[in-house]
C-alpha cells in the first residue's frame, strides 16, 4: 500500500518459499515482525503485513530478499544508502565465515539479541556485504537496534583478526 500512516500489504508465496519465509517454528516470521515493528501473519500461502508504510516496506523487502536468496543462493540488494531502516556493513573476506557462523548461527544470535534481521547480500557491483534491517536504529551505548548489532558484528570481526594474528596468519 502507498498510503500514509497505518496500512496493510500482502505477498503470496510459492510452496518452496513458504517454509523458508516462515522459519522453524515461525522463527523467521517472528524476527521479521520484531525488526520491522510490523504485524506479520501467514494464512496459507499468503503473508499479511500491517504497520506504517516504512515498516511494511522493511518487512516486505526483507521477505522478498529471503525468498530470492533461498531460490538462487544469493541475493542482490542494490541501493540501501537512502533507506532509514538498514545499516550496511562490509566484512573482510577472511572474517565472513566467522561472522555468519555455522549455518548462520552467529547472525541469528545477534538478531535475537538486538531485535534486527540480517543477511549477506550483493551490492550493484556484485560485492557481498552484511545488511542489518530494523526499524530501531538504537544508540551508541544502547542495547537493541541496528547500532547494537553493528557493534556485536564488529566485535566478532576484531576477535577473528586477533585470533589470526596470534596464529601468525
Plain-language structure description:
Helix 1 (15-22) packs across helix 3, helix 2 packs antiparallel against helix 3 (53-72) and helix 5 (105-114) packs antiparallel against helix 6 (146-166). The longest helix has 21 residues, at 146-166. The mean pLDDT is 83. 31% of the residues are buried. This protein is 44% helix and 21% strand. The protein is of the alpha+beta class. The radius of gyration is 16 Å and the shape is globular.
Task: Write a concise keyword list for the protein shown above.
three-stranded antiparallel sheet; 44% helix; single chain; 169 residues; alpha+beta
Supply the helix-strand structural class. Answer: alpha+beta
Biggest sheet strand line-up: 1-3-2
Biggest sheet architecture: 3 strands, antiparallel
CA radius of gyration: 16 Å
- Low-confidence blocks of residues: none
String of helices and strands: EHHEEHEHHEEH
* Alpha carbon gap, first and last residue: 52 Å
Quaternary state reads single chain
Mean pLDDT: 83
- How many strand segments? 6
Helical run tally: 6
Beta-strand percentage?
15-25%
Shape: globular
What is this structure, in a nutshell?
With 169 residues, the chain is α+β, with helices and mostly antiparallel strands.
